[in-house]
Structure formats: C-alpha cells, structure tokens
Amino acid sequence: MRKTSARAPIGVFDSGLGGLTVFRALSRRMPGESLVYFGDTAHVPYGSKSPQSVARYSVEIARFLAAKGIKLLVVACNTSSAVALPAIRRAVKIPVIGVIEPGSRAALAATRGGRIGIIGTEATVRSGAYPQVLRALGSRAKTASRACPLFVPLVEEGWWDGQVTEEIARRYAVPLRRARVDTLILGCTHYPYLKPVLARVMGPRVRLIDSAEETARRTQSALKEAGLLAPAGRRGRREFYASDAPERFKRLARRMLGPGVTRVRRHSFGS
Ligand code: DGL
Predict the structure, then answer these.
(1) Considering the entire predicted model, what is its pTM?
(2) 45 within 8 A of 148, measured Cβ to Cβ
C-alpha cells in the first residue's frame, strides 16, 4: 500500500446495481471514507458470460478505478470474485478484496446443522468457488448450489418484490428446500434486494447470508492494519460511474441509497 494516502477513496465495482449492497454496508460502517462506485451497466449480466469476458471487463474497471487514485478495491461482485480475482490482482498494485471469502466465513459462523445452500449466477455456481472456499476454511458442511439467472434482470428492472418475483424464487428454491439447507448464501450481490422474498420462500428456519456486512468489516480491518483509515471527523465523498445509461442507473440507485446519489457519470470502455 505504498504511496497511498488515507484520504484516498475506496473503489467498489459490480456489473450493475448489485454492488450497491456492499457500497451501503461500507458507507454505514465507515462514513468517513470516500467511495467511488462503478456499475458496468453496458455488460450486465456477468453471470451468463464466459470467465474470459468477465475477467476482461473486471480488469478494465479495476484499472480505471486505480487511475482515480483509490487506496483499496472491493470487488463487489461474486461472479468477478469467482473467476477474475487473480487477473485483477495482477493488473493493479493496490489491495483487492473479493466477496466470496467473507460470505463463506459468515455462513460458517451461522450454520447450525452444517447444511449450506448457495445461490448465485451461472458463472459463480459453475466455478465451484464457494464450495472450494468453504472447504479451504476447514468446513465439512454439506453444500447444495443453485444458479438463479433470472434474479439479476429482475433486480436491474426494479422488480424487487411482488408475485412474479416470488413465483420465480419459489421455483429456484425447490432443490434447496429439498436439501434441507439451514443457511443460504446469497452468492450474488444483487440478491440482497430480494431478501424479503427469499426469506418468505425459504422460511424462518433458514438463515440468509449477505456478504456485504462481512466484506465491509474485512475492508475496515485491512485499512486499519495498513494505517490507511480515513482521518476521523470528516465525511466521505461519493462518486458514481456507469458504463451505460447513467440516468437509469441513478434512478434505481436512489431507490436503494436515497437522494444522496445526485450524479452518475458515464464512462465506457472497449467492448
Ligand atoms: N452482482 C454480481 C454478482 O455478485 C453480478 C451479477 C451479474 O451481472 O450476472 O455475481
């Protein structure tokens, strides 16, 4: 973390609105930190793309944010965290934090019966990243995974609740209920938008794990260890970028974060 200043912002990115769940957790935990968010709305959804494309987009964004002078990068996207973390780390010289390990730790702390369900994009589920990380953390929990490709478009469309969304969630939940999972990892940062629906569908005995909180905690301790926490008593700045349709992004981001989202700039990069 050489040459970086504690006043520098933290960079956060996702394919679209999903990473705002992590952005919100970071901003609540560390109101003094400045944050720069990038939503890759030109390429959403990442979940149905090849690992090569996801890595290419992720590296472009990481470089763009690094050029803005960020002190740390939070990859607030499970798909990128699952398939592109090594490429991102090679591309930028700042610390990079993904969401999969923090989410896995939170699930291990929450599970009572050792039956962990994982929902995520097709790419994340196919990568096997969660079961691998859980095992690497010494877990012997049984896992059941399910890709839920319709969830991201529903969230990007603003359909965060309602009958159609609930019916889709109910169908996706069938194998997870059958596997009698006691804990469910929301392995995509878009899914916390659907928490009320997912809680209804899974029932009160299943704990829903949203990695946002745990990721924010991890970010805070990484900055603390490096002596890079923002000076106390200041209020952080917020900056937003989208690779396409920034006005649309702004409208939905305000629904999530409130009227503080006053401006979203467009920044596009090669396809
Ligand atoms: N929110 C992202 C994730 O956590 C990406 C979803 C997508 O674009 O398919 O996986």
Answers:
(1) 0.96
(2) no
CA distance 58 to 174: 33
Which domains, ranges and CATH numbers included, belong to the chain?
10-98+213-266 (3.40.50.1860), 100-211 (3.40.50.1860)
CB of 14 shorter than 6 A to ligand 1: yes
The answer to whether 269 touches 241, Cβ cutoff 8 Å, is: no
Element (H, E) at 186: strand 183-187
Active site residues: 77, 188
The predicted-structure confidence for 22-78, as pLDDT tens digits, reads as follows 999 999 999 999 999 999 999 999 999 999 999 999 999 999 999 999 999 999 999
- Indicate the top mutation candidate among 23, 48, 152 to test ligand 1's pocket, ranked by most ligand atoms within 8 A of CB: 152
Ligand 1 pocket, residue 77 CB under 6 Å: yes
